[in-house]
Design a protein that fits this description.
The protein is built from five helices and twelve strands. By secondary structure, it is α+β, with helices and mostly antiparallel strands. It has a domain of about 200 residues: Umud Fragment, subunit A, CATH 2.10.109.10. A hairpin with a 2-residue loop joins strand 6 and strand 7.
Amino acid sequence: MSSGAGDQGGVSGDPAQPGPADVEAPTAPSHEAPRDESGDPSVTEKRRERIPAWLEFPLLIVGAFLVAFLVKTFLVQAFYIPSGSMEDTLQVGDRVLVNKVVYHLRPIERGDVIVFDGTGSFVTGDVVEPDVGPLQAILRGLGEIVGLAPPRDTDFIKRVIGVGGDRVVCCDADGRITVNGVPLDEEAYLYRKNPPSKQPFDVVVPEGKLWVMGDHRSASADSRAHMGEPGGGFVPVDRVIGRAFAVVWPPGQAQILEIPATFEQPELAALGPAIPGGVPAWPAL
């Protein structure tokens, strides 16, 4: 009997009843990244994150100007030369690069060509900025970044002749400017044999100030032209924007602006500045 019962339970014609082991368990939702045809999920993710083509170019332009703005503000700025006061070293229309960092690393030296804010020294009284619209202000700012815009009315470029404590005199018996009693040989950079100065002067530069002159002496309204004004013609060191170190435009005028050899005379450093109290340490010439 038992064998019959066993045979009946194994009849192949009866539909099989699923057992617990045969029931398929529900699958949990997959969090795996969708795959592209190659099967690599990262490819699909990159496609989702790609910047639209129409946005890439404007972002590139904005990024480039942002970098240029940061460089111009903190490192190097291009300046346009609007006048002939520094001829023949600098010509009208030249673009020069100005290092804004160098004077945080070393002091200003005689012979440096500097750009400075003349407010309070070369420009007296209230400075009134021109009233311009937002678009003009933006265009001017962009022009200043690349040196296309003319400088502001308070910006000047001159050569440093004397630093704090120096006694600067025009002129000795041979018509030369002297610094601390040492004559300067300026023939290498003065404009077309201009005399060093037709205007006599004898000054001791206060500490923290500079005596500056243009290389085109007969066409430069420099420290000499401002001796009778409140600042005495001296430029405060803290008004210096930076050192002009290279001409980059036009290509035919490109050059590095070195300190002339006459300022490297060891006698200048050996004699030192005026004695304490501002009394000249050298006899009047």
